[in-house]
Specification:
Layout lengths: L1 E3 L4 H8 L11 E2 L4 H7 L9 H9 L8 H33 L13 E6 L18 E6 L4 E10 L10 E3 L19 E3 L13 H18 L2 E5 L10 H11 L2 E8 L7 E5 L10 H21 L4 E8 L3 H5 L4 E8 L6 H18 L5
Parallel strand pairs: 5-8, 5-9, 9-12, 10-11
Antiparallel strand pairs: 1-2, 1-3, 3-4, 4-8, 6-7, 10-12
Helix pairs in contact: 5-9, 7-9
This protein binds zinc ion.
Zinc ion binds next to loops.
């Protein structure tokens, strides 16, 4: 479904103050949008089992989504992405006419941000390794933003019902995990989406990551970036592979938001790439950028007074890391004992946005 929002001067001001877009009166559906029909043709597909993927890999017949194919698909992917992103701009015309001042036909579109839902399709690299993919992410295209050409994927960690009962291949080539973590070292399959931890005060990690993601979304939109939101509700039926595939497809970087399961309030850190993963594609082509992104985000957080863990990063073999063909990082913004009140979360959002600006050279 495609929605569009109208941001008037007041709404824009509210946006700058971090008001949730979903609370703005300007959001409305466009029932006659032609792109909606195209979207309707995209139906979730039967996921290929991990066993099939592994068999294909071991027989040397590359399953769709191997590194070679991913690399080869890259230019086509960019073209497709560009086409998709420009469609809503075209589709804006009727809405503009409907809401525009007839005395001022040259006025700028009154809807600088267009919103549409995007789902997984079988042709996307690595999509066949996903097992839970009936949900949709939400793409905010910032047509009027200074950095609208950059799409930042904001992935609120956890929040997939049934995600811990299903497993996906840990690596695109079927090889075993090189470190422990939520899943053991040596495992060839990992939880599709784990449940996440519970904070010392009883809040669930999944609900706090969602709050943070919404704050970061609004911070980024306010600064003029485009945003791909993986999850905007308590549950989205997208596993970690699907989340990563969508980020690869639509975004320029992928930031997942988590809090760690320790209870020492040791501070924020990022998950780095283990050495043993650095020769496996697509990690081999992206890990240096992912590490640089992680460092930039930490610097941004530090600049906002966020407590940073003394080690700064911890190398772990994550599904997100293993399938990312764009700069991608799991941010652990604290742990069970960390302050997750609204002021703390707002500072984190500003720090992450600062880090993103620094990484892409878009500092103000
Ligand atoms: Zn987590």
């Amino acid at each position: 479904m495609i929605r569009k929002i109208a941001l008037g001067a007041m709404a824009a001001a509210a946006l700058a103050l971090g008001t949730q877009l979903s609370g703005l009166a300007g959001i409305r559906d466009i029932s006659k949008d032609p792109t909606q029909m195209a979207e309707a043709g995209k139906v979730p597909y039967e996921a290929q089992s991990a066993e099939e993927l592994k068999t294909a890999a071991s027989q040397g017949s590359a399953p769709e989504g191997t590194s070679e194919e991913g690399a080869k698909d890259q230019p086509a992917q960019e073209v497709a992405s560009e086409e998709l992103v420009s469609k809503p701009r075209t589709a804006e015309q009727p809405a503009k006419a409907e809401g525009a001042d007839p005395k001022d036909p040259g006025a700028q579109p009154s809807e600088p941000v267009t919103i549409r839902r995007v789902g997984l399709t079988a042709d996307m690299p690595y999509a066949k390794a996903s097992r839970i993919n009936t949900g949709e992410a939400v793409l905010y295209t910032n047509n009027a933003g200074a950095h609208g050409d950059l799409v930042i994927c904001v992935n609120a960690g956890h929040g997939t019902k049934g995600g811990a009962k299903v497993k996906t291949p840990s690596h695109p080539d079927g090889s075993p995990k090189v470190t422990g973590g939520t899943n053991a070292k040596g495992a060839v399959e990992s939880y599709a989406v784990s449940a996440g931890m519970i904070f010392s005060d009883g809040a669930s990690e999944a609900e706090v990551t969602l709050k943070e993601a919404v704050l970061l979304r609004d911070e980024l939109l306010g600064r003029g970036y485009s945003v791909l939101m993986i999850r905007e509700e308590a549950d989205v039926q997208l596993d970690n592979v699907a989340r990563t595939v969508l980020a690869n497809q639509y975004a320029d970087c992928h930031i997942s938001i988590h809090w760690d399961s320790t209870s020492s309030d040791r501070g924020a850190f990022y998950i780095g790439v283990p050495d043993a993963l650095k020769t496996m594609e697509p990690v081999a082509s992206t890990w240096e950028k992912s590490e640089a992104l992680g460092e930039a985000l930490i610097a941004g957080l530090r600049g906002r007074g966020v407590n940073i863990w003394k080690n700064v990063s911890m190398d772990l073999d994550l599904t997100q890391t293993s399938y990312s063909s764009i700069p991608s990082v799991d941010m652990e913004l604290g742990d069970k004992a960390s302050d997750h009140g609204s002021e703390a979360l707002a500072a984190l959002a500003r720090g992450l946005a600062d880090g993103i600006g620094s990484y892409f050279g878009r500092d103000k």
